[in-house]
Amino acid sequence: MSVNLAVVGATGAVGRIVLEQLALRKLPINRLKLLASQRSVGKEVRFADETLKVQLLEPDAFQGIDIVVASTPDEVSAEFASWATDAGAVVVDESGYWRMDPKVPLVIPEVNPEAIHDHQGIIASPNCSTTQMVVALAALHRHCPVRRVVVSTYQATSGAGLAGNEELYDSTRSALTGKTHPAKTFQYPIAFNLIPQIGSEKEAGYTSEEMKMVYETRKIMGDDDIVVCPTCVRVPVTIGHSESILVETADPISVDKARELFAAAPGVTLVDDLDNKQYPMPQDCEGKDDVFVGRVRKDLSSPNGLAFWCVSDNLRKGAATNAVQIAELLIQKLAAASS
Ligand SMILES: NC(=O)c1ccc[n+]([C@@H]2O[C@H](COP(=O)([O-])OP(=O)(O)OC[C@H]3O[C@@H](n4cnc5c(N)ncnc54)[C@H](OP(=O)(O)O)[C@@H]3O)[C@@H](O)[C@H]2O)c1
């Protein structure tokens, strides 16, 4: 069985990796349509052995399309999703707009694949910092319920799209020549700096990015009793989000058991040998699809607590890979229904 597939936001940081993933994972695509804004219409993009032209995202762009993989700003997703669903397509959306809508499943295929069956035309892919944390936490949660999480993130500039990385390069070049590059994408110059604000102020002193980690974690793990205290920080790294995670479970889990659970979990690679300086770092995780876990140890401040370090390529498992995996599940479902 093959499908007609549209990639919306095909020219962006995530959209480019979506195309890479579609080719790499050999999705059975009959017709592929690339959509973006007026700025990109007519741009040529390579896909497998073909050169495709970017077309305009407009209301009648989805005729004959079965599945849409979309990575655009929230307000664009809010507008175009009904154009696609009215034309009969299923939208896999990477933006934040639909994630907490009760009618929209929020899916990580390694964690809650069954949720795709309840969709009404739109399936959301979670925020990048949430996805990698939840893939790792789920390994423990399946063994013993997770009760409390304290997470500090170290998030790459590509999390803010192509403009984020450009600003890191420009800001670094300026700083090296003694100049200040005006910050546009970020709140302050990002070169040689850390910025403890991602997103806007949301509630109780937390940012929108931080509250995504609170609410999305509960929705994906299907457990509203999980409490999460996040601090999200932008760092001058181009690709790969890192997270320091403290987790409390209902009963204690030993370090050896936690390592065993991480090593066996789908989508997780354990890199944990401090004596030999082996732990995950963004440079090693770039271009890889897994979530990498290391530095697993007891939380010295809590009897039921574990501490660990978690790194993942935000453009891959944090975005494109997860969305393409959801598209694969949809194709399997369509194939099963037609056989
Ligand atoms: N970057 C990450 O790590 C990450 C992770 C998870 C989720 N996400 C989410 O994924 C989405 C895209 O992020 P990104 O990092 O890829 O951003 P990006 O690099 O800025 O790309 C944005 C894409 O959206 C398109 N677009 C913007 N306005 C449009 C409009 N009015 N009509 C049609 N297309 C439009 C752009 O097309 P043009 O080239 O024509 O402007 C571009 O293809 C965002 O919602 C983001 O929150 C990102």
TrEMBL record:
Enzyme Commission code(s) on record: 1.2.1.11
BP terms from Gene Ontology: 'de novo' L-methionine biosynthetic process; diaminopimelate biosynthetic process; isoleucine biosynthetic process; lysine biosynthetic process via diaminopimelate; threonine biosynthetic process
Annotated GO MF terms: aspartate-semialdehyde dehydrogenase activity; NAD binding; NADP binding; protein dimerization activity
Subunit structure: Homodimer.
SUPFAM superfamilies cross-referenced by the UniProt entry: Glyceraldehyde-3-phosphate dehydrogenase-like, C-terminal domain, NAD(P)-binding Rossmann-fold domains
Biological source species: Crateriforma conspicua
Domain of life per record: Bacteria
Active-site positions on this chain: 128 (acyl-thioester intermediate), 241 (proton acceptor)
Chain sites annotated for binding phosphate: 99
Pathway: Amino-acid biosynthesis; L-threonine biosynthesis; L-threonine from L-aspartate: step 2/5; Amino-acid biosynthesis; L-methionine biosynthesis via de novo pathway; L-homoserine from L-aspartate: step 2/3; Amino-acid biosynthesis; L-lysine biosynthesis via DAP pathway; (S)-tetrahydrodipicolinate from L-aspartate: step 2/4
Top enzyme category: oxidoreductase
Semialdehyde dehydrogenase NAD-binding domain location: 4-119
Free-text function comment from the UniProt entry: Catalyzes the NADPH-dependent formation of L-aspartate-semialdehyde (L-ASA) by the reductive dephosphorylation of L-aspartyl-4-phosphate.
Keywords: Amino-acid biosynthesis, Diaminopimelate biosynthesis, Lysine biosynthesis, Methionine biosynthesis, NADP, Oxidoreductase, Threonine biosynthesis
Residue numbers binding substrate: 155, 234
HAMAP family: ASADH
One Pfam family matching this protein: Semialdhyde_dhC
Binding of NADP(+), residues: 11-14, 39-40, 158-159, 314
Keyword Isomerase in record: no
Amino-acid biosynthesis in keyword set: yes
Protein name per the record: Aspartate-semialdehyde dehydrogenase
